[in-house]
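User: My collaborator sent over this chain with a note saying "see what the structure looks like." That's all I know about it. Can you take a look?
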Amino acid sequence: MVEVARRIEDADALVIGASNGLSISEGIHLFGENEQFRQSFGDFHERFGFRSIIRGCFFPFAEPAIAWAFNSRMHSHFMQQVMPSPVVADLIEVVGSKPYFVITSNIDGRLGLSGINASRIFEVEGSCRNLQCAKPCHDQLYPADDLLSRMAKAQRDMTVPEELIPHCPRCTGPMQLHIETDERFLRGRAWRAQKTAFAEHVQEYRNGNLVFLELGIGPHNQLIKAPMMQLAKSAPSATYVAFNVGAANNFPCVIDPSRYFYVDGNLRMSLARVREALR
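Assistant: Without extra context I'll predict from the sequence alone. Here is the result:
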């Protein structure tokens, strides 16, 4: 861990990739049927049969009032019900004042709430905090924290009041969360601007001491893990540090071993150890 801390301390800039493992360390289990899921979504499970939050995201609800009851409850679960953990606070301390950019496939929107600069986050699969036209008929995202909070408070029997169901201000058709569940996901101006800003950050520092931090990304992740490893491989002085659990997530053959570190273990504890080593 001392060498990992030294590489971070000597870095000119950081690239941070975050996926489901970071969410789990924060207490959010998109893919799991655990006690937390049963407490927050047990009625949906009993009625519709799905066993995880992610299954609910893809479930074809027949009635918009029920779909928005699930969406708003998920938003409340992410934003209010799950208490903040030290993980992102430790990450922010590890980053310090260095230039950074985060690329994430997480849809929970919590990084922006936890102190990470929203302009330095590329949410590849969107965020549950924004809405888009479901067609989509136009290129615009709509912040929806307030509306979704009101829906969550007003819902009864897995149904929200009709007057709270959003409609597109242009075509008057249905709206949907800006999360990637089908081909209608809007990769518009805002999404492309995030993507461009991320690419420019990598390009600006690729010939310097650029450190990639991979936080809880699964072995088959083609959205973040594979591209990040290729970027690190092509950057001549880059260091790649993967924080994960188990040998299945370790890919030492992709990058020069002198520039690759695998930290196996609990992400919360591992980041805390790095933070302490940097002090």
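A starting point for your reply to your collaborator: The chain has two domains: 1-27+82-125+187-278, 35-80+128-179.
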